[in-house]
UniProtKB/TrEMBL annotation:
SUPFAM superfamilies: DNA ligase/mRNA capping enzyme, catalytic domain (SSF56091). It holds the Pfam family DNA_ligase_A_M. It comes from the Bacteria. Keywords: Ligase. It catalyses: ATP + (deoxyribonucleotide)n-3'-hydroxyl + 5'-phospho-(deoxyribonucleotide)m = (deoxyribonucleotide)n+m + AMP + diphosphate. Residues 119-228 form the ATP-dependent DNA ligase family profile domain. GO terms for molecular function: ligase activity. This is ATP-dependent DNA ligase. It comes from Actinomadura alba. Belongs to the ATP-dependent DNA ligase family.
Length: 335
């Protein structure tokens, strides 16, 4: 049986402050923003399970323990929306472990035993063949909670934390930031499920940190993005930790006056390997221009870190002409 379900998941747009509860239709509901892979789980009429990514990529082979749990715990003719996560050994979300699953091939059974994953479920579109897409979120959430009353606590399927109390949600963010929870998702209690629409809101926890500029895209006289680094505590060398979004035009002149082109004595290669300055590992090398690593800038970053690097672009905040590279802390620890 083909289940009519959203071709695209409902999406979220970024905001910079928590909206007043009355601003959203039916009031505000709050959930943690998980750092993982978005996934739609579909259990068809014959209890066949289909786990797919946000863009429709099949995930059954990479996460067989989640496929088994969907088969065992949820009724046929059901469609749920959630996030695949992996808790690392230190109790922090481990995004790199999820990426490893996608390319593990024959090693998947071993990783299921040594690095099991969870599916955090935060919405339900169809249950037992009943279409809930047009129902308000508050009703869908109640159906989800009822659905999970029979799911064992040890199951890799988990209903996400949820509250209508903004103060409680803020406490979550403060308490869970060390585990890699990126912030909050805010939903309108009265909204239906709207495939492909950015009607949910996401408020990310951000910090400002100082970093050393080691390269630019564009040119040193007119930099577009900055490639930034910090000293690696283990090697003592300057390590790439990420890149910024587009530098504001108002900062071009000051940066151009401070940046100096560098030659082959620079500690970084002429092309940056994939994943060093954001993006997925396995993508093409990044072209950039090396500059002398003697300029410090302050940037705003979220909590997503992958293998000691920022997974999302930082936002340029200001030039720190009052600091030298030796003043910048070594390593990349945001908590």
């Amino acid at each position: 049986m083909y289940l009519r379900c959203p071709v695209e998941p409902m999406l979220a747009r970024s905001i910079d402050h928590l909206p007043a509860p009355e601003e959203l239709r039916g009031g505000s509901r709050y959930e943690p923003k998980w750092d993982g892979f978005r996934a739609i789980g579909r259990i068809d009429k014959r209890h066949g399970v289909h786990l797919v990514s946000r863009r429709g990529t099949r995930l059954n082979e990479a996460f067989p323990e989640l496929v088994a749990a969907l088969y065992e715990e949820l009724p046929a003719a059901t469609v749920i929306d959630g996030e695949i996560i992996r808790w690392g050994a230190g109790g922090r979300l481990d995004f790199a472990a999820l990426q490893e699953r996608l390319i593990a091939g024959s090693r998947v059974p071993e990783l299921v035993r040594t690095q099991p994953c969870h599916l955090i479920v935060f919405d339900v579109m169809i249950v037992g063949g009943e279409d809930l897409v047009r129902r308000p979120f508050a009703q869908r959430r109640q159906v989800l909670e009822d659905l999970f009353t029979s799911v064992p606590p040890a199951s890799p399927l988990v209903a996400t934390m949820h509250t209508d109390n903004a103060d409680e949600a803020r406490i979550w963010v403060e308490a869970l930031s060390t585990q890699g929870i990126e912030g909050l998702i805010i939903k309108a209690a009265g909204d239906p499920y709207l495939p492909g629409k950015r009607r949910w809101l996401k408020l990310k926890t951000r910090h400002t940190i100082d970093v050393i500029v080691g390269g630019v895209t564009g040119s040193p006289s007119r930099p577009r993005d900055l490639i930034v680094g910090r000293i690696d505590p283990a090697s003592g060398g300057l390590r790439v930790v990420g890149r910024t979004t587009a530098v504001p035009p108002a900062a071009h002149a000051a940066l151009a006056a401070a940046l100096t082109p560098a030659g082959d004595e620079h500690p970084w290669p002429a092309e940056l390997p994939s994943g060093w300055a954001g993006g997925m590992y396995g993508s093409p090398p990044m072209q950039y221009v090396r500059v002398r690593p003697d300029v410090v800038v302050e940037v705003s970053v979220d909590l997503a870190i992958d293998r000691g690097r920022l997974r999302h672009p930082a936002r340029f905040h200001r030039l720190r002409s009052d600091l030298r590279p030796d003043d910048v802390p070594a390593g990349l620890a945001l908590t």
